[in-house]
Structure formats: C-alpha cells, structure tokens
Design brief:
181 residues, mainly alpha, 2 domains, 8 helices
C-alpha cells in the first residue's frame, strides 16, 4: 500500500509515529500482553517480536493505520493478522514442527495444538467488544490471578473488578453453550 496511497481514512507517517509514541504505559502494557498471547505457539517468535514486526509495518506504511481508531485496537488487529498469517504458513510448511521431550515423545500433536488454539480464540471471542474483559481473560489464561492479574492488565482496582465480573459472566455463558471442553 505505501504512503502515497492518498487514502484520507488512514494516518500519515508522522501521525502514526505520534500515535505510537504517545501511548500511555497502561496501553503499552496491554499491547505487550496481547502480543504475548498472540505469539504463543509460533516457533521462534515471542510477543516482543510480533509487536516489533507490527510497528515496522505500520511505520513503513505496509499496514494501514485507520484514522479515529484507538492505537491499541490498531495494534491488536495488526498483530492478530500477522499471527494468523504466520500460522497459515506453518500449516502449509513441509517441516514438522512438533516438539519432543527428552525421551523423544510428542507432548502435543499439531492437531491438539490447533484445537487448543481454536478453543482459546473462542474463549477470547466471548469477550469481543469489551477490551478490558478480554484482557482479564488473557491474563487468566496466562495463569495470573488476583493483584498480579490486575497489575498485569494496567487497570485500576475498580475497573479491573468490573471487567473481571463481566468476563466471568460471559465465560459462564460460554460454558453453558458447551463451548468449553
């Protein structure tokens, strides 16, 4: 796409640079946490790598930064796309990337890994449209609870408690629908 597209619905280079530079510490932590979750299962890629790749593509103009959209939302969408593209490439790869333990036994087959990824995506999707509840679910999936989870989200105590309650209600509905295995 590049910077010479003339699209008035997207930020120009300087505006993208300013939006990224002006992110609050809480927004940056949110983006880093989201990147960590989205990079999970991608061999040789961690959250920092994924976030850096998205920064590069946004700043180069290769990825569009829509005007009027919150920076974290833009980053999340771009990281989801990058992670999805990487996973598609892995599925098409002739190389078997299963991991083995010291005894040479497979711990998770590609099918099990894919199923777990799909289930996690379905769980996160139950909180779509509520970024704080989605973030709470992500830190829970990372094994964090209580004050540690609240701190990782960057939310205040009241905001975290409200998001936690919304996430709990939504996940209860997910289980009732038979979505959780």
């Amino acid at each position: 796409m590049g910077w010479n597209s003339g699209d008035p619905g997207r930020l120009n280079y300087q505006e993208v640079q300013n939006s990224l530079a002006q992110m609050s510490d809480a927004d940056l932590r949110r983006a880093e946490r989201i990147a960590g979750f989205l990079a999970h299962g991608l061999p040789g890629v961690n959250g920092e790598d994924l976030l850096q790749e998205v920064y590069i593509k946004l700043l180069s103009g290769e990825r569009r930064f829509p005007r009027g959209v919150h920076t974290v939302k833009v980053l999340k969408s771009a990281m989801e796309s990058e992670a999805s593209n990487a996973r598609k490439g892995l599925r098409a790869s002739p190389i078997d990337l299963r991991t083995t333990d010291a005894d040479g036994a497979d711990r998770r087959s590609p099918e099990v890994e894919l199923l777990a990824s799909q289930q996690f995506a379905a769980i996160v999707a139950t909180c779509a449209g509520d970024p704080d509840a989605e973030l709470v679910v992500m830190v829970w999936a990372d094994g964090l609870t209580g004050a540690e989870a609240r701190e990782a989200t960057g939310l205040g105590e009241k905001a975290f408690d409200a998001a936690r309650k919304r996430a709990t209600r939504r996940l209860a509905g997910f289980e009732a629908q038979g979505g959780a295995a």
